[in-house]
Q: What sequence folds into this?
């Protein structure tokens, strides 16, 4: 109840957590064509008449790259907010995704991405509780090696799963009647 009061007036940020690599690649392509047009102009090359319009691409190249840096700034802001929220909890305990999301001001969907990213980078340790779907800070995912694994040389017949369940989203082996995947947190 106290939690509800604390988070009542918090809003999610409208900005999304997105990877920036695609943005920077697009910016580079525009920049490349713009520079190419200057070279064509200098050498009097008339292919696509690029020399007469290509330089205009400097404008989108600039704004696309700027957008990439803005996204990087947003991503870092989110990562800091999430790290702070986890640090405030001593990096341990079980929490609802929504509570951390509200505190950091990030939509739960974006929070999932930030968490997975931070875990990939080795900055945090957590797993999802397969029964409750809550985040367990400081807990490592218990990877279960499947003995029945067969390299899929032929996929004509369905592979024997030995009565074991796997997460359809990430392939993590599940034990028993888990409601949530301990690796990716997907509802099963
Ligand atoms: Zn999963």
A:
């Amino acid at each position: 109840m106290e939690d509800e009061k604390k988070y009542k007036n918090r809003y999610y940020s409208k900005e999304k957590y997105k990877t920036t690599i695609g943005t920077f690649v697009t910016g580079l392509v525009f920049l490349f064509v713009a520079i190419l047009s200057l070279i064509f102009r200098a050498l009097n090359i008339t292919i696509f008449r690029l020399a007469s319009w290509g330089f205009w691409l400097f404008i989108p190249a600039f704004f696309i790259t700027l957008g990439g840096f803005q996204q990087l700034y947003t991503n870092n802001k989110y990562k800091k907010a999430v790290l702070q929220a986890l640090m405030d909890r001593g990096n341990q305990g079980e929490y609802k995704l929504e509570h951390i999301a509200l505190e950091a001001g990030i939509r739960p969907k974006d929070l999932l991405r930030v968490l997975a990213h931070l875990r990939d980078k080795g900055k945090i340790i957590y797993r999802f509780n397969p029964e409750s779907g809550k985040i367990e800070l400081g807990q490592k995912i218990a990877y279960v090696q499947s003995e029945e694994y067969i390299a899929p040389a032929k996929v004509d017949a369905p592979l024997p799963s030995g009565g074991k369940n796997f997460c359809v989203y990430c392939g993590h082996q599940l034990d028993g009647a888990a409601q949530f995947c301990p690796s990716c947190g997907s509802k099963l």
